[in-house]
Amino acid sequence: MNIQGFQKLTLLDFPGKMACTVFTAGCNLRCPFCHNSRLVINPEKQSEFTVDEILAYLKKRTGVLDGVAITGGEPLMQPDIDCFIEQVRALGYAVKLDTNGTFPDRLKDIVGRGLVDYVAMDVKNSPAGYPETVGIGGYDISKIKESIDFLLTGNVDYEFRTTVVREFHSVFEIDGIGKMIKGAKRCFLQAFVDSGELIGFDLSPVPKAEMEEMRKVMLKYVDFCELRGVD
């Protein structure tokens, strides 16, 4: 595991849990609005935190923390992520996995083995808007659709989420996303925030009133939709 970040306490990253967050290095997408660009472009090859350090911390926090959120980058790029999760679960922790949905086979395997309790999958845009939004021309979304369809089976608790950016999303695109995840029990539309470490340039958030309209559109397709990070 190449772990390049570790947040020792979060009340936001794992719904209903007091958790810590582990940040893995590397991603196969190049979303211009990514706020963790240092984990995506030329990440450090050596881990900043070792697995032993993380596990030692978790042992000390047993009974205080409930869960561990694993994010990135794209965690499913880590070849030994299943071994890491097994060690975390052996300490009694619930595990949440963040993923961009590009590794459906690995996702199915980890879920099938009962290694994760909650999956948060980013759905970047409508099918037509995906290539520009992930920064890869001609991007094939077949694996994205496969991951969506798998999560919709309900084999694991899940959410879909979309970071909404003025330059990439309108009500039309949100409608396209809704069609992709139709029948989902839970999704979130997240306000874009410029972290100062973006891959792209000149990006901006969508106003709250328009975000509310997007939420109404999404509710035509899903059971629950909420805005995140909107004042």
Task: Furnish the topology, listing elements before pairings.
Elements: E1 3-10, E2 19-24, H1 37-40, H2 51-60, E3 67-71, H3 81-90, E4 94-99, H4 104-112, E5 118-122, H5 130-134, H6 142-152, E6 157-164, H7 171-180, E7 187-191, H8 208-218, E8 225-228
Parallel strand pairs: 2-3, 3-4, 4-5, 5-6, 6-7, 7-8
Antiparallel strand pairs: 1-2
Per DSSP, what share of the residues sits in E-state strands of 2 or more residues? Answer: 15-25%
Rg over C-alpha atoms, rounded to the nearest angstrom: 17 Å
Placed side by side, the strands forming the largest sheet appear as 1-2-3-4-5-6-7-8
What is the share of helical residues?
25-40%
Instruction: Provide mean pLDDT, rounded.
Output: 95
Uncertain segments of ≥5 residues (pLDDT<50)? none
Number of strands: 8
Order of helices and strands: EEHHEHEHEHHEHEHE
Number of helices: 8
> How would you characterize the largest beta sheet?
8 strands, mixed
Task: Summarize this structure as a short list of keywords or feature phrases.
231 residues; alpha/beta; eight-stranded mixed β-sheet; 8 strands; globular
